[in-house]
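Per your request, structure below.
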């Protein structure tokens, strides 16, 4: 499974970064140890990341520069939220904002979303997972790179606690339809319920509405997007 963040691990151990990785974001990552974790560190610290570990845990995969993590954490002190992404620059920018505002219920990790679900988080530990505008990989030959595939969705089901939610947004209609089919086949119940009875929504739980960076971009260009919430029964 893909592993990211090892350069930060090495820097934190006092080793030098390879020349081509000399950049200010990596140097800053050393100063953000209470807010920014690597995939290796998550393996050891996942149960102690947050000050109050009794709070419900929400995960955002592909958190980009942390806009949602910051907004959700500051508006919902009753829960913890972890944002993960795979690029150094984005996670450093996200963790920097949390540190500046002294937010202790929001954390960031440089970590692959598939590895997080399959190798790091124990079963039934997550109360909600958000994936907003994941890369759609629209070309047939790249389709294998998509995040939301059957294996991922089966793992997601296992890692969510009962009544946990999955909140998905995308601008790509085909990705939306294919994911929707996989979600229903995996036993998730859509937000409108199987018999049309409304289920609790993240927006009821989390407040909001939260407009992601890519959502803003698409909306600004008049591009429609699709979203749905699924509940683990
Ligand atoms: C198109 S951007 C959307 C960003 C943000 N969710 C939004 O809506 O504004 C997709 C993000 O997912 C991240 N990403 C891609 N593959 C990932 C993976 N396997 N695990 C975690 N993050 C990933 C990318 O680095 C990028 O920041």
């Amino acid at each position: 499974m893909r592993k990211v963040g090892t350069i930060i691990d090495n820097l934190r151990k006092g080793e030098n970064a390879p020349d081509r990785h000399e950049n200010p974001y990596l140097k800053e990552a050393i100063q953000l140890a209470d807010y920014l974790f690597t995939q290796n560190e998550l393996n050891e610290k996942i149960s102690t990341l947050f000050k109050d570990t009794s709070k419900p845990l929400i995960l955002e995969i592909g958190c980009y520069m942390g806009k949602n993590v910051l907004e959700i954490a500051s508006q919902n002190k009753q829960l913890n939220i972890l944002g993960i992404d795979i690029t150094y620059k984005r996670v450093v920018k996200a963790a920097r904002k949390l540190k500046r505002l002294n937010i202790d219920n929001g954390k960031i990790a440089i970590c692959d979303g598939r590895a997080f679900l399959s190798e790091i988080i124990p079963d039934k530990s997550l109360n909600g997972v958000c994936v907003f505008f994941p890369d759609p990989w629209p070309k047939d030959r790249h389709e294998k790179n998509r995040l939301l595939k059957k294996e991922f969705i089966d793992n997601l089901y296992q890692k969510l606690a009962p009544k946990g939610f999955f909140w998905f947004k995308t601008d790509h209609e085909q990705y939306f339809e294919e994911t929707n089919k996989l979600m229903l086949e995996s036993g998730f119940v859509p937000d409108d319920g199987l018999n049309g009875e409304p289920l609790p929504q993240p927006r009821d739980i989390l407040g909001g509405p939260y407009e992601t960076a890519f959502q803003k971009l698409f909306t600004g260009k008049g591009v429609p997007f699709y979203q749905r919430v699924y509940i683990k029964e």
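The beta strands are 36-38, 57-61, 80-85, 106-110, 126-132, 160-170, 188-190, 226-232.

Regards,
D.
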